[in-house]
Amino acid sequence: MDLIKTIEDLIRFKTETGNKEEIDKCLEYIKNVFDGTGAVVEIVRFEEASPVIFIRNNNDIEQDVLVLGHIDVVKATDDMYEPKIVDGKMYARGSLDMKSFAAVAMNSMEFVLKNNLNVKFGILLSTDEEKGSHSTHAFLEKYKDISAKVVLDNDVGGDIGVIINKCKNPVFVKLKAKGVGAHGSTPWDGYDANEMMMETLRALRKYYPYFDMYTGKPENAWIDTMHVAKICGGEVSNIISDRCEALLDVRLVETSSVESLEENIKKSLAKGVDYEIVSSSTPVVMDENNVYIVAYKNLAENILGRDIAFEQIGGATDARLFAERGAIVIMHSGTGEGMHGDNEYVELKSVEKLAEIQIEYLKRF
Question: Is the pTM value of this prediction over 0.70?
Answer without folding.
Answer: yes
